[in-house]
Design brief:
This protein is of the alpha/beta class and 504 residues long. The protein contains 18 helices and eleven strands. 36% of the residues lie in helices and 8% in strands. Helix 9 links the parallel strand 7 and strand 8.
């Protein structure tokens, strides 16, 4: 198979990994090739409005694992290919020089064993930096189960690393990915998080002129291993990292400066939105992740352990992204947005509007006196609008016309605010009226409005017209599997993958 054919196979195989956005990483050119900027490198829009791109490929799709949901599973009959390190380096440099890309996103199936795969990826990023002088953005996957020394070494060369949990529950992993134990997924996340913190502390000490020890002294125990003991997989002698190798590194060198991320597949298991969101919240709090990415389950193969779905749950994915934004920037907690009684997001309302509707007793709020944290909880007011309101209040009292100029969406916010004691023209305290206004034709296209109807647990076509309800997503070809999953589905969904209970 020639290089072009490999590129077609391995670029196509990488499309299911959505956790390739970037932000926060800056790497200045030191007489090399390219720069990485904090605005981001990805197939998306950056903070400054640019559409940017990267080379997104797998090193190999020849996997030893047989995860049911994965197109690259060992038992699946698909074309297989693997790049050599030289081929990945050649593609990256040639594409960059032709201005096709601004960086590299490199992932891989598990080839031979985790440490072997991680060793190959480390060789690529090391040579790109040291031999090619490439200072562009690099994001790679940390392979769960790989030797910690390899992951740490790779973290000194790349901008971002990610470890994909994929399934949001221990039960889902047990059924669909039995070769991936929870601890094997969480251990590298913990290691990367710890390394990022230590790197920042070392830089602070370095800049303030305090004495700092070599990286090797902080990283290795007397036995030459990272704290934590033995790890699965073998490492060849060529990958052995000595203390002298690390001591030669710049004490000021960053470790994964753009942070780490992960991906959760939505819809491959019967986990409710509450369970998924509580897991994301725990990951942000415990491992300081930059992002949790949500990927609507795309059925690529037929298996009795997988649900039969009409289409990927894209609206559900969108609602989770909206809720994730509220967790990170608006001060919400998962238990405020969902509950055991209501474990899934409303298909008609975004999570913030749904929260406000359930808490009408807290409204209306006087825009001229309410604090910043509560302003952020008003539908139609974003972070920038809230900041502008706080700044404008120092000058004088605000009215609804002022709010329009600031950028507040009064079609939404007007139901929850007063200005100098006056309510907006559409104000009401009736929950039904407010909800009807929020999901009116002006906010939701007529073709997307819900059609009243009785939902069936086993319905295959969503009578509401949206195709996103939980009861539409979990139909299995085998009665035994249906019974197994539905019994799990009916259990309390209060965050199944409890990180606090897992001792790594």
């Amino acid at each position: 198979m020639d290089l072009l054919e490999k590129l077609g196979v391995l670029a196509d195989a990488a499309k299911y990994d959505v956790s390739c956005s970037s932000s926060g990483g800056t790497r200045n050119n030191k007489n090399g090739v390219g720069n990485s900027h904090a605005a981001g490198i990805c197939h998306t829009w950056s903070d400054d409005g640019r559409c940017v791109s990267l080379l997104k490929i797998l090193l190999s799709n020849e996997c030893i694992y047989d995860c049911v949901y994965c197109v690259n599973r060992a038992s699946n009959d698909v074309p297989r290919a693997s790049f050599t390190a030289d081929e990945v380096i050649e593609l990256t440099m040639n594409f960059y020089r032709r201005n096709y890309i601004e960086g590299l996103f490199l992932s891989s199936a598990v080839l031979k064993n985790p440490s072997h795969t991680m060793e190959l990826m480390l060789e690529i990023v090391r040579r790109l930096r040291n031999e090619q002088g490439f200072f562009g953005y690099i994001h790679i996957k940390a392979i769960p189960g790989a030797d910690e020394r390899l992951i740490h070494e790779a973290g000194l060369y790349v901008d971002r690393m990610s470890v994909n949990i994929e399934l949001p529950s221990d039960k889902g992993l047990e059924v669909l990915a039995p070769q991936k134990p929870v601890k094997a997924l969480l251990k590298p996340m913990q290691q990367i998080s710890r390394g990022i913190v230590e790197s920042k502390e070392n830089r602070k000490s370095f800049h303030y002129g305090n004495s700092t020890s070599n990286v090797s002294n902080k990283t290795f125990s007397s036995s030459g291993r990272l704290p934590g003991g033995e790890f699965s997989g073998s490492v060849s002698s060529g990958a052995e990292l000595s203390k002298r190798d690390f001591s030669r590194r710049d004490k000021n060198q960053l470790f994964v400066p753009a942070g780490q991320s992960t991906q959760l597949i939505v819809g491959a298991t019967p986990d409710r939105d509450l369970s998924i969101l509580k897991l994301s919240e725990a990951l942000y709090n415990k491992f300081s992740l930059k992002r949790v990415y949500y990927s609507a389950f795309v059925p690529t193969i037929t298996d009795p352990r997988l649900p039969t779905i009409m289409k990927p749950p894209l609206l559900r994915e969108h609602r989770l992204y909206q809720a994730d934004w509220l967790l990170r920037f608006y001060g919400f907690e998962a238990d405020e947005l969902l509950s055991k009684a209501n474990p899934d997001f409303d298909v008609e309302l975004d999570p913030k509007a749904n929260w406000a509707l359930k808490n009408l007793h807290m409204f209306p709020m006087e825009v001229n006196t309410v604090d910043y944290e509560m302003l952020l909880r008003v539908p139609g007011i974003g972070v920038k609008s809230a900041q502008r309101i706080i700044a404008a209040r120092r000058v004088g009292k605000l009215n609804f016309e002022n709010l329009k100029k600031i950028g507040v969406v009064l079609k939404r916010a007007g139901h929850f605010l007063t200005c100098q004691g006056k309510t907006y023209e559409s104000y009401s305290q009736n929950e039904y009226i407010v909800k009807e206004a929020l999901v009116s034709a002006k906010l939701l296209p007529q073709s997307k409005k819900a059609v009243p109807g009785q939902m069936s647990l086993f319905s295959t076509i969503n009578e509401s017209g949206l195709g996103e309800n939980m009861s539409d997503l979990y139909l299995f070809s085998s009665p035994e599997n249906t019974k197994q999953w539905l019994s799990y589905y009916n259990q309390p969904q209060d965050g199944r993958l409890l990180l606090s209970d897992i001792h790594i």
